[in-house]
Write a structure and sequence with these properties.
- The protein is of the alpha+beta class.
- The protein is built from four helices and eleven strands; from the N terminus they run E-E-E-E-H-E-H-E-E-E-E-E-H-E-H.
- The protein has helices spanning about 60-65, 85-90, 155-160, 185-190, and strands at about 5, 10-15, 35-45, 45-50, 70-75, 105, 110-115, 120-125, 130, 135-140, 170.
- The strands form three sheets. It has a five-stranded mixed β-sheet, covered by helices on one side. Strands 6-7-8-11 form a four-stranded mixed β-sheet, with helices on one face.
- The longest helix has 9 residues, at about 185-190.
């Protein structure tokens, strides 16, 4: 696993998801890139891992990050992103509660919690915002929300509008290319 430093104390990595299969239909629930993104944020004496996925027991890079901190917090944005959460939590004796300064944003009705990292001006979504033609964002396809009992993209758009009040510089998506600068403008376009 190779970590990409996004900013001091903030890294992202991508790894091939072991359950990935080539999609048969565009924008179907199975249509997502093979490589998925994960985030590590150093927050004072704590290492915060969001949606971590570790394959082939390649923990070396995370071991180095965790060794430099007193505590490890392991967060997931939605149930589909449990990924390596249990293994990572055991390995680092992690806890599931965000420290002060890592702000959960519950997306009303969408079954997702995004995380706002104000010290890095970074938003970390799960499946509701995707990377789109860099440097852009898009809402997830309607098929990805089929289990949410009639929840629509318009509902999602409305639920995400409060994010426009944040000074978002970066959006570190799980699926697709991250937005590394001018994230607020990318978010505005996605919600227009």
């Amino acid at each position: 696993m190779e970590l990409q430093q996004v900013a001091p104390g903030l890294v992202r990595w991508t790894v091939p998801h072991p359950d990935w299969e080539p999609p048969e239909v565009e924008d179907s629930p199975a249509d997502w890139p093979r490589d998925v993104g994960c985030v590590a944020c150093e927050h004072e004496h704590t290492l915060v891992l969001i949606d971590p996925l570790v394959v082939d027991d390649d923990y070396r890079a995370l071991d180095d990050l965790a060794a430099a901190k007193d505590d490890v917090v392991v967060l997931v944005t939605l149930p589909f992103h449990e990924r390596s959460r249990a293994d990572v939590t055991r390995r680092y004796d992690g806890v599931p509660d965000p420290p002060e300064g890592v702000v959960p944003f519950e997306v009303e009705g969408a079954g997702e919690t995004m995380y706002w990292l104000p010290g890095h001006r970074t938003l970390v979504p799960g499946d509701r915002l995707l990377g789109d033609r860099p440097p852009g964002l898009r809402l997830c396809p309607p098929s990805w929300m089929r289990y949410l009992d009639g929840y629509t993209q318009d509902d999602l758009r409305q639920a995400l509008r409060p994010l426009l009040q944040l000074p978002v510089e970066r959006v570190l998506v799980s699926h697709g290319q991250p937005v590394l600068e001018d994230g607020h403008a990318a978010l505005e376009r996605a919600l227009a």
